[in-house]
UniProtKB/TrEMBL annotation:
<dbReference type="InterPro" id="IPR036615">
    <property type="entry name" value="Mur_ligase_C_dom_sf"/>
</dbReference>
<protein>
    <submittedName>
        <fullName>Folylpolyglutamate synthase</fullName>
    </submittedName>
</protein>
<keyword id="KW-0547">Nucleotide-binding</keyword>
<dbReference type="GO" id="GO:0004326">
    <property type="term" value="F:tetrahydrofolylpolyglutamate synthase activity"/>
</dbReference>
<keyword id="KW-0436">Ligase</keyword>
<dbReference type="InterPro" id="IPR001645">
    <property type="entry name" value="Folylpolyglutamate_synth"/>
</dbReference>
<dbReference type="GO" id="GO:0005739">
    <property type="term" value="C:mitochondrion"/>
</dbReference>
<dbReference type="GO" id="GO:0005829">
    <property type="term" value="C:cytosol"/>
</dbReference>
<keyword id="KW-0067">ATP-binding</keyword>
<dbReference type="GO" id="GO:0005524">
    <property type="term" value="F:ATP binding"/>
</dbReference>
């Protein structure tokens, strides 16, 4: 029984796909406890795969959450991962999905799911702003005579912030993230469906020039399943 549990493979749970310059980390997590486990796993995996060198590496989050989940709480747990870009999209593989009934939720419209993605983006921006502007008045007072009391100015705030983007479907999100660098995922048309944002052009240049791109796909299990369907088409045959 122990051997069976050890050797079990569950696609979309703590799964890593290495493809050229891209490494995909897939772990569906839609509760606080599962997201905490996801973050621990992702950070450990990043540390093990860390490359030595001066060439830039980019971290990208691909996230969606549906139903009555609390996306703000889940996204807050992801902040320590220090993503360079946060990407949000519905669980649709394509905008005009046909033959993808397992990815569709027929109780909501495309406008509704896109609105939810925009809400996720707003939560993420708010969390970035919170980290960039800590409440200095609520910080504990330094101990008299301690090292902190010798500071002439407060500690600088956390300055790592990430650009965020919303796409109308998984395929468009992957097109932007991969920039044609994934050896398997090679869509025939250029990225479409991007809700205009200044980070899109500059981010594309960064992704094209990065020595490595680390992409965490998490949140909804349907999102993870849709990404796997596009990255590993043989799994859905």
């Amino acid at each position: 029984m122990r051997h069976g549990l050890r050797d079990t493979e569950w696609p979309g749970r703590s799964q890593v796909l290495r493809r050229g310059h891209l490494t995909w980390y897939l772990d569906g997590a839609h509760t606080s406890s599962s997201m905490q486990a996801c973050v621990r796993w992702f950070r450990q995996a990043l540390h093990r795969g860390e490359r030595r060198g001066s060439a830039p590496e980019v971290r990208v989050l691909l996230f969606n959450s549906t139903g009555d989940r609390d996306p703000a709480a889940l996204l807050k747990l992801l902040q320590p991962c220090q993503f360079d870009y946060a990407v949000f999209c519905p669980n649709l593989t394509e905008v005009s999905s046909t033959g993808n009934e397992d990815q569709q939720n027929f109780t909501v419209t495309l406008d509704q799911v896109l609105l939810r993605c925009l809400e996720h983006q707003q939560h993420w921006r708010h969390l970035d702003e919170e980290q960039a502007s800590p409440d200095l008045w609520s910080a504990p007072s330094p101990e008299p005579g301690g090292p902190a009391s010798l500071r002439l100015a407060p500690c600088p705030p956390h300055t790592h912030s990430s650009g965020s983007l919303v796409f109308s479907c998984i395929s468009h999100a992957l097109q932007w993230i991969t920039q044609g660098r994934d050896p398997v995922f090679q869509p025939p048309s250029p990225p479409r469906g991007l809700l205009a944002h200044p980070v899109a052009g500059s981010g594309a240049s960064v992704l094209r020039e990065a020595a490595a791109i680390h992409v965490l796909v998490t949140g909804s299990l349907h999102l993870v399943g849709g990404v796997l369907k596009l990255l590993e088409p043989s799994l859905s045959q």
